């Protein structure tokens, strides 16, 4: 059995240690926020936080998350209170189809935790997730707005 | 026709039987349905039904805005809910076409959506008037409240909805003048975005049913090939593996977790009969298409004005060029998939589809059940771009696999590799263009021959009118320039690679060719590319208007900093008119720094301006990905690319500054999702010519050594 904490809740799974975290979350634990896009850590639709760090869960063995805290989009707004990044995403109408946006939001949250006032260059370097609909301009605007709101929390 | 009560029962069973929640709130079973599009609850909540699909194009919101506008309801109380495909079948297609394709979700449903809103308002007004024993002409509706003018009495939609639902719909309604719009025409926030950012929205891939198993598939790598044999014993006993299913042209492995199914499939020995396609390569396909440029037979005329040969013979100068665009994959970020369960003669399907009716029909045909026994559960799409609107191959497979598994629910999901290598690709094409200029540099003759596959013949299997596939000759056959002698020809040449609609399809390639060649003509005439076009476009054309508006916003006449160069292009696409101005600099290492991309659009009416801006921004990213890197190549009959490492997508750091110019001239309804791409490639390639003197006549740009900064 492998133990991990998903969105604040302790979970135990009986799976192969090499099974990617993404499939443990989606198929074993019914946590659907992280999406499958490529399977080779290219697109970032599967991005989750493990102990606060963004990882591409399609290529991250579940054994590496043993005993750690996993945060997905579902866990970002405890009690329904939206994270400033989520609020900025609504205010600036960022998503189109929305499929990549969970990964984008979690990447942005991690960036703002490290750099509360990111420059455009910081955003360029941190935001490497693919969006096929082409929401990049609004992602940039929304990250700056979330930073400005001055309450980007962990 | 079933009664309303029956429909609501069916709808509730269809939507909730597996505990799979729709993103929007479901109507209360008892809520009065005013008409097929409008349900009003006693608490004044207004349910507006949406029949087509939402894949990020924003139409779920825009369509509801049009209904709400005519209904005069309170937008803050509007909930949007998908129309049910099963009820659609039972109610004789009451919601019309459910397909979200061809940028037509608004422009081809605006009339009946607005009438549905206006009709429902009229019924609510009559119900209120009857309750007050007053003439309906003395009653008005605003923000969901009905007022009796003379007495000042008020009531709400919710209070009279029960009575209104019993009334006959009005035979005729008067629609508002768009200049009086209060809800439509405004940048209203999209109804699905709060669910997206909170992780509540569900895509096809997210279906979860009790006892569900998972399928991964391998399809014959060569298009048209068949399965020969499979050695299932090799993966027997692997953890989680439940079944190996050999099908006609694919193999499915079913397991208790999708990763286990996919990993087992990798170890499964499979033999294929590749068939005739095995010998094909990109080179052989190009040769086949190029022969279409010279063949005298199997060529049809798509447009003829005047006498081409006479025009060319009398020209002071004749220019000729050959252009090429490659196959492209859709690469929706959510790969193809379908969850299905067959039980007691009933089929339930969850799939991300652009055409729920086609999915419904495919599920019924594959399962061998009547249409009335099928339920296609509506979900958000993780991108569409045309891939999910034509072929329903993923539904056929999903239902086939579920059928083979008895009454166990199965979720089929493709890998990215399967998705890239088993697409219905944007057709490749080669085009020869020839034009004759008179002594003052104006074109007196224009010839184009397009040699390309036909989507309509091969995918839709429909007859072509006079042999012409309109997609293949789009923007050539309807070119707007004042040229007296025009001949446009089409040579249909179909290699073995399947083709399909792809965001902007023909307009993603032909305007690149046409508008690049117009630039070649301007250069030969020694004229400014903007002024040259403006002079050739009759002043009454919409192209003329949007070209002027875009050039003005881009400050075309003003000088640029040293090293920065401009390009411009204009075209019609999907009933809208678009123009683009690109400003860029090119380094000595051919790195292209796009300083500014100004995109203008005249879509006639604008239902949601912020959404139009979003679609134009997205179109820029989609086209830049395609024009810099997009190319599907063929070797040994199969696709060489497999995933995002070799089928490259643009990233945030490469996103240039995009400025959108809304130039609506009113009076018509143009498309929004696709037109934005059409003018971008030629504007950028024309700017590249201005910067480097190199004329790009084929895409992608990586083949010419250009990189994006």
What can you tell me about this protein's structure?
The complex is a heterodimer of chains A (154) and B (709). Chain A has two domains: 2-75, Roll (Ubiquitin-like (UB roll)), CATH 3.10.20.30; 78-148, [2Fe-2S]-binding domain (DNA polymerase, domain 1), CATH 1.10.150. Chain A is built from five helices and five strands, in the order ββαβββαααα. Chain A has helices spanning 21-28, 84-91, 101-114, 120-126, 136-148, and strands at 2-6, 9-13, 47-50, 53-56, 69-71. The radius of gyration of chain A is 15 Å and the shape is globular. By secondary structure, chain B is an alpha+beta fold. Chain B is built from 18 helices and 28 strands. In chain B, the strands form seven sheets. In chain B, strands 10-11-8-18-15-16-17 form a seven-stranded mixed β-sheet. At the A-B interface, helix 1, helix 2, helix 3, helix 4 and helix 5 of A face helix 6, helix 7 and helix 17 of B.
In short:
The complex is a heterodimer of chains A (154) and B (709). With 154 residues, chain A is an alpha+beta fold.
H/E series of chain A: EEHEEEHHHH
Give the low-confidence spans of chain A. none
How many distinct helices of chain A? 5
**DSSP strand tally of chain A:** 5
Task: Give the overall silhouette of chain A.
Answer: globular
> Kindly, what is the distance between the CA atoms of the first and last residues of chain A, rounded to a whole number of angstroms?
29 Å
Largest beta sheet of chain B: what is the strand line-up?
10-11-8-18-15-16-17
Helix fraction of chain B, binned, reads: 25-40%
N-to-C CA distance of chain B: 60 Å
Q: How much of the sequence of chain A is in beta strands?
A: 5-15%
What is the CATH superfamily label of the largest domain in chain B?
Answer: Aldehyde oxidase/xanthine dehydrogenase, molybdopterin binding domain
User: Which architecture of the largest domain in chain B per CATH?
Assistant: 2-Layer Sandwich
């Amino acid at each position: 059995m492998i133990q991990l904490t998903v969105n604040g809740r302790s979970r135990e799974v009986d799976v192969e240690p090499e099974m990617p975290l993404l499939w443990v979350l989606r198929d074993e634990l019914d946590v659907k926020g992280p999406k499958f896009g490529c399977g080779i850590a290219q697109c970032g639709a599967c991005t989750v936080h493990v102990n606060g760090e963004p990882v591409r869960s399609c290529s991250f063995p579940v054994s590496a998350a043993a005993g750690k805290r996993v945060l997905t989009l579902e866990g970002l707004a405890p009690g329904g209170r939206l994270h400033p990044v989520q609020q900025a995403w609504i205010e600036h109408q960022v998503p189109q189809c929305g499929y990549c946006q969970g990964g984008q939001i979690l990447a942005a949250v991690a960036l703002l935790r490290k750099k509360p006032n990111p420059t455009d260059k910081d955003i360029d370097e941190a935001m490497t997730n693919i969006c096929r609909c082409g929401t990049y301009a609004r992602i940039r605007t929304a990250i700056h707005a979330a930073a400005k709101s001055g309450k980007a929390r962990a | 026709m079933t009664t309303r009560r029956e429909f609501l029962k069916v709808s509730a069973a269809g939507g909730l039987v597996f505990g799979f929640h729709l993103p929007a709130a479901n109507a209360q079973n008892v809520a009065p349905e005013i008409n097929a599009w409008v349900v009003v609850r006693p608490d004044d909540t207004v349910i507006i039904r949406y029949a087509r699909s939402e894949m990020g194009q924003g139409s779920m919101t825009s369509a509801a805005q049009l209904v709400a506008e005519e209904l005069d309801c309170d937008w803050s109380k509007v909930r949007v809910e998908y129309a049910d495909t099963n009820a659609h079948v039972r109610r004789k297609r009451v919601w019309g076409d459910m397909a979200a394709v061809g940028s037509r979700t608004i422009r081809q449903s605006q009339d009946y959506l607005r009438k549905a809103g206006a009709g429902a308002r009229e019924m609510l007004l009559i119900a209120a008037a009857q309750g007050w024993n007053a003439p309906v002409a003395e009653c008005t509706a605003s923000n969901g409240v009905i007022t009796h003018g003379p007495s000042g009495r008020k009531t709400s939609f919710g209070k009279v909805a029960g009575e209104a639902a019993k009334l006959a719909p009005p035979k005729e309604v008067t629609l508002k003048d768009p200049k009086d719009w209060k809800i439509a025409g405004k940048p209203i926030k999209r109804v699905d975005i709060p669910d997206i950012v909170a992780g509540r929205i569900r895509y096809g891939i997210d279906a979860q049913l009790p006892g569900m198993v998972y399928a991964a598939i391998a399809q014959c790598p060569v298009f048209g090939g068949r399965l020969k044999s499979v050695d299932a014993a090799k993966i027997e006993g692997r953890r989680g593996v439940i079944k190996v299913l050999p099908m006609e042209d694919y193999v499915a492995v079913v397991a208790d977790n999708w990763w286990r199914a996919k990993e087992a499939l990798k170890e499964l020995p499979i033999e294929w009969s590749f068939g005739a396609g095995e010998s094909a390569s990109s080179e052989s396909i190009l040769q086949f298409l190029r022969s279409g440029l010279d063949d005298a037979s199997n060529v049809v005329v798509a447009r003829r004005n005047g006498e081409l040969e006479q025009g060319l013979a009398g020209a002071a100068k004749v220019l000729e060029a050959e252009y090429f665009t490659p196959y492209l994959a859709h690469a929706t970020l959510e790969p193809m998939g379908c969850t299905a369960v067959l039980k007691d003669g009933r089929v339930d399907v969850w799939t991300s589809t652009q055409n729920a009716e086609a999915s419904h029909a495919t599920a019924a045909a594959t399962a061998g059940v009547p249409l009335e026994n099928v339920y296609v559960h509506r979900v958000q799409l993780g991108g569409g771009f045309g891939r999910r609107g034509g072929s329903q191959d993923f539904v056929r497979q999903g239902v086939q696999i579920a059928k083979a598994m008895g009454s166990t629910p199965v979720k089929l999901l493709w890998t990215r590799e399967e998705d890239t290598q088993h697409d219905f690709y944007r057709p490749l094409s080669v085009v020869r263009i020839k034009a004759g200029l008179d002594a003052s540099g104006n074109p007196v003759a224009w010839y184009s021959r397009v040699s390309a596959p036909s989507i309509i013949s091969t995918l839709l299997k429909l007859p072509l009118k006079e042999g012409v596939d309109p997609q293949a000759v789009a923007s050539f056959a309807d070119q707007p320039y004042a040229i007296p002698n025009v001949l446009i020809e089409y040579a249909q040449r179909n290699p073995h690679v399947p083709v399909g609609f792809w965001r902007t399809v023909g307009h993603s390639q032909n305007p690149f060719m046409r508008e690049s060649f117009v630039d070649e003509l301007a250069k030969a005439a020694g004229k400014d590319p903007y002024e040259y076009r403006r002079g050739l476009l009759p002043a009454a054309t919409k192209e003329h208007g949007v070209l002027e508006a875009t050039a003005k916003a881009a400050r075309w006449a003003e000088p640029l900093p040293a090293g920065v160069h401009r390009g411009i292009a204009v075209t019609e696409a999907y009933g809208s008119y678009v123009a683009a101005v690109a400003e860029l600099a090119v380094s000595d290492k051919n790195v292209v720094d796009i300083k500014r991309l100004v995109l203008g659009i005249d879509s006639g009416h604008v239902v949601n301006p912020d959404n139009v801006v979003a679609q134009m921004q997205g179109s820029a990213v989609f086209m830049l990905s395609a024009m810099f890197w997009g190319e599907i190549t063929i070797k040994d009959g199969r696709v060489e690319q497999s995933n995002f490492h070799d089928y490259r997508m643009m990233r945030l750091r490469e996103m240039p500054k995009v400025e959108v110019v809304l130039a609506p001239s009113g009076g018509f309804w143009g498309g929004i999702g696709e037109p934005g791409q059409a003018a971008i490639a030629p504007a950028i390639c024309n700017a590249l010519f201005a910067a480097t003197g190199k004329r790009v006549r084929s895409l992608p740009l990586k083949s010419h050594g250009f990189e994006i900064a």
